[in-house]
Each structure stands twice: as C-alpha cells, then as structure tokens.
Specification:
five-stranded mixed β-sheet, 2 domains, Nucleotidyltransferase, domain 5, 242 residues, alpha/beta
Length: 242
C-alpha cells in the first residue's frame, strides 16, 4: 500500500510517499521533498507533490490514503495543506489520516529515551506545544498539544522531570528563554530534525491508518486551536471576546 503525506503547517512545505504492508513493518519512504525558503506553500506544495509522484510513477489512484498534518499551525498553511489533501483524497476516493502537527514533529525523534517537546511560535507570546515520549516503539503523550504561554509549557516540562529535546521554530524563537526556565537536562534538535517533515507524518499516518483512525475527505477540517486574527477582531466588534 501507499500513503501520500503532506505537511504545510509551518514554515516548511513538505511531501512524502510511504509504502509498506502493515503498521508493524518498517516500510519505505519512496520519495520526499521539503523546502523552507521564502516562497509560499501555494507556490511550492503542488509542484513538490507532482515531482515525487512522477519520480515514483504514482498516480492519485495508487494511494490508499492521504496523511496530512492537521494542525495546529499557520492558518493559511493548514488551509492549503487541507485543501490539497481533500482534493487528492476525493479524486482517488481514499480516506484522510489527520496527523496532529506536534505528534508528527515529535516523530522526528522516534525511539528516543528522552521526552520530546515540539514547539511552534504561535505569536502573541504563546507557543503551540505538547510533550511526548516513546515506549516500546509507541508514542506516549504526556501533554496534548495546546496553545499556551511559554512559561506554562516549561512548567509541564519541569514537572515531568525527564531529559527533554526541544524542536520546532518556537524552540528557535525562544531558545534563550527555554534554557532560562528549564530545570531539567535538555537539548535542542539539530537542523535536519528541527522542522516539520512529511516523512514523519507518513510513518505516523501509516500507523494511524491501520488503527482505523481515518476520516473522509468531506469530514476533514484543520485543527486551529484558537481563532485567527480576523476572527478575533470580528468577535471584538460584536463584544464576543474581551
């Protein structure tokens, strides 16, 4: 079977194709492509998908599912990724696997004995973050993904008491503050493991697919965790938020 994976939730646009027989098998990443360079996802994502499909002789009908990083993340990026996933899944008549963005990021460090704390810069003095680990090859969730203040996230990290790896653009943006707040042994991911990667989304997506955790293209929608700036301003105009 084949799974097409897409991640456009952050600064990186990434696509990958996974092939395997079942979730317990290692499987193979047949192709992957990523870019993080001054172009919008609307410019890069579809050509990237087209390229890896051509390289692997993959047509939409050859996929058994589309895995997409479902959020949180950039509102525009998530919409582009979701719209692309829905269009391909609808054309191929296959389900969508909604991979939580931060779980996909944590999967970059599959098998580590450390806790893994992916962070995305959510602006407004907040991060999108969660706290994860691995045991017997399974992803453990110590804290589900949430939009919260960095100080609050660091309190969870310190309370867990495990050595931790930080990654993501939020870890870069708040590097010094993280080190200042951390009371546990910690490190920061190297460049090749520090950003969203569709290959990780594909591998986690394959496991979720075999567990039956899929939705139809009609059912799929991004997970934003909070309102967009436009929605917040509109709500203020109608006295719906402070």
């Amino acid at each position: 079977m084949k799974i097409l994976a897409i991640d456009s939730s952050g600064l990186v646009a990434s696509a990958a194709i996974w092939e395997g027989t079942d979730a317990s098998a290692v499987g193979t990443i047949l192709a992957t492509a990523s870019t993080d360079y001054k172009k919008t996802h609307s410019q890069t994502l579809l050509p990237m998908i087209d390229g890896i499909c051509r390289d692997t002789d993959s047509l939409p009908g050859s996929f058994d599912a589309v895995a997409v990083s479902s959020g949180p993340g950039s509102f525009t990026g998530l919409r582009i990724g979701s719209a692309t996933a829905k269009a391909i899944a609808m054309t191929a008549d296959v389900p969508i696997v909604e991979v939580p963005t931060l779980e996909g990021l944590a999967y970059n460090f599959w098998g580590t004995a450390c806790a893994v704390c992916p962070m995305m810069d959510a602006r407004r003095n907040q991060v999108y973050s969660g706290l994860y680990g691995f045991e017997d090859g399974n992803l453990l969730t110590y804290k589900t993904q949430e939009a919260l203040a960095l100080e609050d996230m660091m309190a969870f990290v310190n309370d867990l008491g495990k050595e931790v790896i930080f990654l993501g653009d939020g870890a870069d943006a708040y590097h010094d503050s993280i080190s200042g707040h951390a009371s546990v042994k910690h490190s920061f991911a190297p460049a090749h493991l520090n950003r969203q990667n569709a290959a990780s989304v594909a591998v986690l997506g394959a496991r979720m697919f075999f567990e039956g955790r899929t939705v139809s293209s009609d059912e799929h929608k991004p997970v934003y965790l909070r309102m967009s700036q436009a929605e917040r301003e509109g709500a203020k105009n109608f006295d719906l938020v402070n």
